[in-house]
Amino acid sequence: MEEAKRYARLGAFVVASVCILVVAVFLLGGRRWFQPTFMFETYFDQSVAGLDVGAPVRFRGVPLGHVASILTSAATYEQSVPLDQRHRYIVVRVEVNTSAREAMQMRQDVKALAAAGLRAQTQLAGITGDQYLALDFLDPKKYPPLPFEWTPRFTYLPSAPSSTGEIISNLQTFLGSLNEADIKTLGHSLNTLVTDLDTKLDEVPVTELAATLQHALIKADGTLTSVDQLLTDPALKQTIDNVAVISGHVRRITENGDLDRLLQQLDDASGRLDVLLQDNQYDVRGIVEDLRTTASNVRALSENLRRYPAGVLVGGPPEKIQLPQHSP
């Protein structure tokens, strides 16, 4: 009886241990085994150096999954194909973590998306130099699917060469198109350019430029010293304080309404003066006429005084003397 209980306790311990182990594995990463995934593969006709298993996969910058495996088409699909007829592609398989509904939708849409120009492309991740797989829409006519004769194990998505690979390929093509004469001409041109540049540098008046720069720096230092002295001058501070006081008075006058009252009084005075001139404009005209007559009389008196000063002081002008007339 005791032995049966001991076996029962041992069995319960083993079952509990297994349950705890399963729960721990599930919490530490086993949950992804039960998550729906979508697998697709793409082929590259160039090197994918720098792209490693586990590298991120992004659709226009949005994380989508990771690279599950990197294989060769010769070892995966072309074992029975003669060596000279193999394509030698690089097979990159991608695992995309999505929900069951999204995985089903992606399986249905991937062919239409590929026809619309969705392509896989290796790209560099910033300044680190690590590569990742980027999905984006490109021109399907410029980047058609690669030809192959096998049936892909997973959904196939066409690829496009990376921008870095295109640059290197174009550079190699350019270098390959150069012949010996072109290389000699290019070298001669570079040598001439370096010689001309060296001559131009020798012609630069470094000493004069240095002297001019030093003179300008001395003037700038003197100007800064003068400005510093001006800023530390007590008179400037007093002027600023006076301006502040005047500004304060003006602000107070404006805020108290004194300025508005003064302007109103000036406006009233101007109106009263205008009314006064309108009411007495005839009297003013008479006064002006009398002033004109007085001025005319004064002018005549001045003329007589200039011509007959004694007569003006004593009496009228002397009578004319009649001279006797002699008969012929």
Kindly describe this structure.
The chain has ten helices and seven strands. It is of the alpha/beta class. It has three domains: 129 residues, no CATH class; 32 residues; 76 residues, no CATH class. β2 and β3 form a beta hairpin. The protein is elongated and about 165 Å long. The termini are far apart. The model has no long low-confidence stretch (mean pLDDT 78).
Key terms for this structure?
328 residues; alpha/beta; 3 domains; 10 helices
Short account of what is shown:
This protein is an alpha/beta fold and 328 residues long. The protein has helices at residues 2-27, 73-76, 100-116, 163-177, 180-203, 206-232, 234-256, 258-279, 281-307, 309-314, and strands at 37-44, 56-59, 62-72, 90-97, 118-124, 131-137, 155-156. It has a 7-stranded mixed beta sheet with strand order 5-6-2-3-4-1-7.
Compile the SSE list and pairings.
Elements: H1 2-27, E1 37-44, E2 56-59, E3 62-72, H2 73-76, E4 90-97, H3 100-116, E5 118-124, E6 131-137, E7 155-156, H4 163-177, H5 180-203, H6 206-232, H7 234-256, H8 258-279, H9 281-307, H10 309-314
Parallel strand pairs: 1-7, 2-6
Antiparallel strand pairs: 1-4, 2-3, 3-4, 5-6
